[in-house]
Design a protein that fits this description.
119 residues, alpha+beta, 3 strands, elongated, Phage_gp49_66, Phage family protein
Length: 119
């Protein structure tokens, strides 16, 4: 079940009190960046170590960095066990989902704090 499916069910059941929504999660994302571990290792060694090497599996580990509107950043990862199954687009989608999952508790805490302060 996707976040949007859950949101649809919440609305259908009339649960419309203050809550974090998928739209809210998307709205706080300012930037998103994707790279593999290999990309990161290569960039870290540019101009520093001409003889660097990285295991081929580092090209199967995809990272997503989401920078939120307040400057805080969350990361998500996707690791592919079989090189034959690696697909960059799928890796990015999974890494993004994993990063998004880290935003939910942050936004939940923020909403709860705001509701508490209104009391």
């Amino acid at each position: 079940m996707t976040d949007m499916d859950i949101e649809k069910e919440i609305v259908t059941k009339g649960k419309t009190a203050a809550r974090v929504t998928p739209e809210r999660i998307e709205s706080v994302i300012l930037e998103e960046h994707y790279f593999t571990a290999y990309d990161g290792i290569r960039a870290a060694n540019m101009g520093v170590n001409a003889a660097w090497a990285a295991h081929p599996s580092t090209d199967l580990l995809t990272f997503c960095v989401l920078v939120l509107e307040n400057g805080f950043a969350v990361t998500g990862e996707s690791a592919c066990a079989s090189p034959e199954n690696f697909d960059p687009e799928i890796g990015r989608k999974i890494a993004r989902q994993n990063a998004i999952a880290k935003i939910w508790p942050l936004e939940g805490y923020l909403l709860k704090q705001q509701l508490h302060e209104v009391k």
